[in-house]
Amino acid sequence: MQWHALWLSVVTVLRDLFLNPVWYAGFGLAFWDLRRTSGLERRMFGLRATRPLRRTLLRGVQGLAAGVVLSALLVGTGVVVQVWEVAALSVLSLVLACIRLRFLSPVYAGALLMTASFAARAGHPRWGGVWGAVVHHLGGFRTGAWMTVLAGSLLAETALVWWTARHGTSPMVVQSKRGRGIGALWLQLAFVVPVVIPTVGAMWPAPAYASGALHGLWLSGAALFSLLGLPLLAGTSGVFYALPPQQYIRQWAGLNVVCAAVLLAGMAAHRFAGWPSLWWLLWLVVGVREWQRAWTGWQQSRRDPLFAPTEEGVTVLSVLPGSLAETLDLQPGERVMEVNGIAVHSPYDVHFALNQNPAYVRLRVLDRRGEPRLTGHTVYEGERVQLGLVFAPDEVRRDGLARPRFGLLESLYAEQLARRQPYQPTDSTSNASSLNEEVAAASEPREPS
Fold it and tell me: How confident is the model at residue 214, as a pLDDT?
């Protein structure tokens, strides 16, 4: 009998997840974002560093892992919500997403629902019919439980972004203030976190023909208590041309942890100290997140570009994961000054110097602080065409992206300016293929392995 009940719970959770439109909206938008990036990489650099389907599936698995941990914590702490609250949060998130996609984050819908609940309890309207039922439901909104759920979602979001940010960037060209295309790193991290939450109540009664085991498929809460699946959207995005992505991640993660701690403290005060509803705390979290987006943009606008063209050396824009360049510990923003003892001033010089000693590569590099260092490695057969470096453009380019803002799925709003013809390698642009092949023979972009 216990196995039978467990099977019904699993089926019910899967049903809730797969019938929730937020599930499909999250995965669809995340894949669309990465698919667009892949096309821009081919057009601007002649390579495809981003594999949309593979990366979407990988992040789906990572989101599932975070959801399992968060679900265990919610069940273990005794958090219980009502079924209609889960439905209301999902529907309101989709409505808000029509205004701006970053509002798919559950924090925004949660803030509105808690505000409506406070107004319903404070006003005591004497309405009947449908409106009376709506006000009655809103007045019973479980603020403390949802503050715990949303605090957990912020912590899960922080862990996922911190875990995956290192390999979450893509090379890109953006428009500077003077209208010139400069190199940038595009961070795109979006996750669907499936969470299992204990619930009470039912969304709708079971039909007359449902009976036995099938009855559990119609009720969201068998008897008085059950588990319900809820997909939550998490992540962030941004284009970094003057601010290192690692610095942004540290600031963003720190604020997320502080916001989660504030929500948990408010929940504890509401539950154990009997404080009145602290719905305004969630608006404080929303304000902090919006302020952080504006502050990051202001910080970046006051700094010099990280990947501006230089007269000496060539600037590393991106290092492909698993490549020889990653083995050499090259970092974005560093400048390659010499290759195999030959001074380089353009990507073509790098290509020429590599061919002088195809069995070994030795680089003199200036890090972002201007301090020189030497690095080298044996080049085995086949690795020479997989160096894995993308250099920042040092030519005058008028294509690129208008600099988008920061936030969940905000990269989808980035506007491409002045589309160019399909990429053809030149003396001033390099990627993982053109570094190691004859420039004249590179008529088509090649995917790095």
Answer: 37
